[in-house]
Amino acid sequence: MQVAAGSPIIGGGLGLLTTNTIEPNSIMLQVPTHLTFSTSSSKLDANPKVENLFANPKTYIDAPWWAKLAIDLIVCNDIDSTKEDPKKEPVDMRPWLDSLPQSFDTPIRWTEEQRDKLQYSPLSSMISIQEKLTKKTFESLRQALKPNSLLKESLTYEKFLWGCDCARSRAFSGSYGGAAFDPKPYALTLLLVAVYIAAGMGSIEQASNGAGLVLCGSILKDFVLPKLFKSKKYIICPMVDMANHVGMREQGNVAFEYFANGFSLSTKPDVTMEKKEEVFISYGPRSNDALLQQYGFVEMNNAHDVYVMPPLREWDIAALEEACGRKFQPGRLQKLERAGLLGGSSLGKGKEDEDTFEEGVANRGRGVVVTRAAGIDPAILTALRVLVSSEEEWESVGEAVGNLVTENSGGKENERLARVAAQKALELELLAKPTTLKEDEETWKNRDSLGVGIEDILALQFRMEKKKVLKETIFALSLM
Length: 480
Known about the structure:
By secondary structure, the chain is of the alpha+beta class. The chain is 45% helix and 13% strand. It has helices spanning 48-51, 57-61, 65-78, 94-99, 112-116, 121-144, 151-154, 157-170, 184-198, 204-228, 288-295, 317-324, 332-338, 378-388, 391-396, 412-431, 437-445, 447-450, 454-479, and strands at 2-5, 14-17, 27-32, 37-40, 82-85, 88-92, 171-174, 233-236, 244-245, 252-257, 262-267, 280-281, 306-309, 368-371, 375-376. The strands form 6 sheets. It has a 3-stranded antiparallel beta sheet with strand order 3-11-10, with no helix packed on it. Strands 4-8-7 form a 3-stranded antiparallel beta sheet. The longest helix has 26 residues, at 454-479. It is globular, with a radius of gyration of 27 Å.
């Protein structure tokens, strides 16, 4: 396994290449835990070495996970580049630190004009929240530093933003929050059991009960309690973090090795890799909102992409009535309101903390979610069946919203009109865009001659993919 740049790495950046043929289920790379950077969602989890740089350590301890990891990286990069383990020699992380990107294309760095070119207000709104929170967190952390702290000079907003981008784009997460396997408690338990029995202090059954309690306590601490309290761990694993993302059919899998006290990158059970082949992993089923906001790239034909429409309460009812050739009956919107199917407001309120943009799901106003994989939200189709139903159709289902959940539950004509209404809403969403998909595709073909910057290229890719999701869904609705 080697880190490579340029061809044959897709996109020409850094990536991992195999140096020989690798069989299925084979470990390609293993990194000891003490060389990783980690934190968790717990406010008790902080780096003691970094904590000592703060006059008010609580500010650092209470910071969001990405901010804590950002500070850890900056300290390692600017103050002390060694990682230590009590049982091993210190390791200088400088070669890995020097390989990290020095600049990012994430939209938190874009101007308002550049963000407008996304043509997608849900993500623009989330980026604004992210920017406000990042600046607020930076100011709090900087003010909490000791006056003579070595970090005081190097911690600029630009440096903090670099650390945050590194943390968000290179960390992976999991629910496991315990420690690696430690044989000492078990060895001590066996010794005590042997002494207990040899000294005639009790029976074998009593000794076994005591050993069982130790085993149960270890399982409880390492596996049960972290899941019970929903503890989430965030880890940057040097070298493994060089693997690039693919949404489907990745060859590699990253896992924590409990007994080896480290993290491994291995081939999947059904994958054989040839020499000089790039190793891809999956960062998870992420939409292009998350990929662009956190990683600074767009995945073309992303199977996990979504489009968030305005909530149903903001749709053009008159246009839907015209498309269906029916006037919607009085009282239906009130029924949907009571059923919670009209959504919120497109200016939906939400806490401005890390959870609101954690996974890049830009749906603060409880809008209508359209996915590339499944199309329009089934709950919205239910609402549209209610909305378009005639008096006769409405009476036939007992005037109950819950009786129109399944396909054709209101009759074939009702189903057809519900889908016509959905298509019309999606078409109106497309028509509201400043450019058409065809125009965007033409710009994409001529991008080199137009001399556009990377921000414009990413915005163009992003809005093309969003429009494709809408068009694909319109086509699918027309077939049903």
